[in-house]
Amino acid sequence: MPTRVRTTEDFDKQVARLARKFPAVLDEVADFIARLQSDDVAQLPGRRIRRTGFTVYKERLPNRSARRGKRGGFRIYNWVRRRDYLVLVAICSKTEHEGFIESELGRMITDIE
């Protein structure tokens, strides 16, 4: 069954801000969403983030605009509402931001509900 993917308004703003400096983020996010929506996703992407109160995963995406791999690329956080439905909550560049702490992610998701 295909996965339904939704983005939040904050996520869209974060992508737009990153795209001004790193244009390749648009392609990376589009590829990530396409991969999630395909039928052949065997498991949820990324590493589970504990202590948020929700089922949140963090995936690393490469930053081709800065010629960096996944290690220096983007961090994308998704909240799994159901096995076939998830919400992209936040994205950041590793070079600009270390990432979101659990309490921030929990607050962001609480604001969505």
- Strands of the widest sheet, in order across it, are 1-5-4-3-2
What does the radius of gyration come to? 13 Å
Main β-sheet description: 5 strands, mixed
Full CATH superfamily name: RelE-like
CATH architecture call: 2-Layer Sandwich
The total beta strand count reads 5
What value does the average pLDDT take?
A: 82
| Overall shape | globular
Tally of individual helices: 3
Which structural category fits the helices and strands?
Answer: alpha+beta
Helix content: 25-40%
The end-to-end distance, rounded to whole angstroms, is 24 Å
Roughly what fraction of the amino acids lie in strands? Answer: 25-35%
Order of helices and strands: EHHEEEEH
Topology, element by element:
Layout: E1 4-7, H1 9-21, H2 25-37, E2 47-49, E3 56-61, E4 74-82, E5 85-93, H3 102-112
Parallel strand pairs: 1-5
Antiparallel strand pairs: 2-3, 3-4, 4-5
